[in-house]
Amino acid sequence: MAHPAQSKTEAPTPRRLQEARRRGQVPKSRDFTAATVLLAAVLLAYLLRGPALAAWERQFTWYFTHCFFFGLVPEHLPRVLYEVGKGALWMSLPFFLLLVGTAAAVNLAQSGFVFAPEVIRPNLERLNPLNGFARIFSLRTLVELAKSLIKIAVVGAVSYAVVKAHVGKLLLVFQAAPQAAFQAVSGAVLAVMLAAGGAFWALSLLDLLYQRWEYFRNLRMTRQELKDELKQTEGDPLVKSWQRRRQRQILLNRIRQEVPRATVVITNPVHLAVALRYDEATMSAPQVTAKGAGDLARHIQELAARHNVPVVYNPEVARFLYYKVEIGQEIPPELYQAVAQILAVIYRLKGKAV
Question: 239-349: CATH homologous superfamily?
Answer without folding.
Answer: secretion proteins EscU (3.40.1690.10)
